[in-house]
Amino acid sequence: MTMPTSLPLDCEELPIYPMPTANQLRMVEESGLFDETWYRRCYLMGRTATMPPLVHYMQFGPRKGYQPNRHFMPLNYLRFHPEALTQNINPLLHYIQNFRQVTELSSQTDIDFHQIYHCGGFGGNESCSGTGSSLRQTATLRPELQKIFLKYTIKSVLDVPCGDCNWISAMDFTGITYTGGDIVEDLIENNKIKLGRGFSFLVLDLCRGPLPAADMLLTRDCFVHLSFEEIFKALATIKNSDINYFAATTFTNCTKNYDLDQITRWRPLNLCLPPFNLPAPSDLINENCTENAGQYQDKCLAIWEVTQL
């Protein structure tokens, strides 16, 4: 994309603090967070182009809530970072300057989830991990998982991704060492402040590893957000780790698995079907999910021995 360095005559002011226009545009372009193809399809389709898409976003996007890519939601970002609004700073620029160091993010998945976290997560008022991590949606799961810990004599649990630990922190970990891991460093640091006593937290990428040893690895609501390629990388990481049992979300009524929709970044998966073909799990907990008016009543947490994978 050719770098625009000036604005058309009808775009004399950008909604951010004083900074030369060229510098603003360069910051966004160099961040790699402006998806021109996405922006054209969502906001400029059928319109006569009067300015480059990036300039259009910088001028009109923050005021109208236009997204620069699939994951960064400016209006949500301003809810969680109101200082950007009071300082009259373009929310994307505020994010780039304050939270995202380009060289420190190791993968596109890391970049995507970092943006999602700083825009308020996956929705839901109780947890940034979404409504599926609410106490209500885990009311059946929690006591059943405690029974699993006893059944398999679990003394150490690795939870990846741990999110904000909303539901897991309501469980009894007496006699069990808990370690939460997540790809978003800012989230991990926040967890250390809120829940550091008794819990340990690490920045971990399930697709890249390495993973610390544990009796059980929890990956609830993880694979549903990953592509097939990423899931196979995660399974390889798990197989090469010192972990005895592996727990993951599976939807037993799902009859065909589809690769990740990059727009919604979620879909149900049945891990016993192609392309994964995992064997029947050792244990299966139906969560009694009521999300989406009961559409996902088949949502389960399945437990396998890692040697089964």
Automatic annotation (TrEMBL):
Record protein name field: Methyltransferase domain-containing protein
Organism: uncultured Desulfovibrio sp
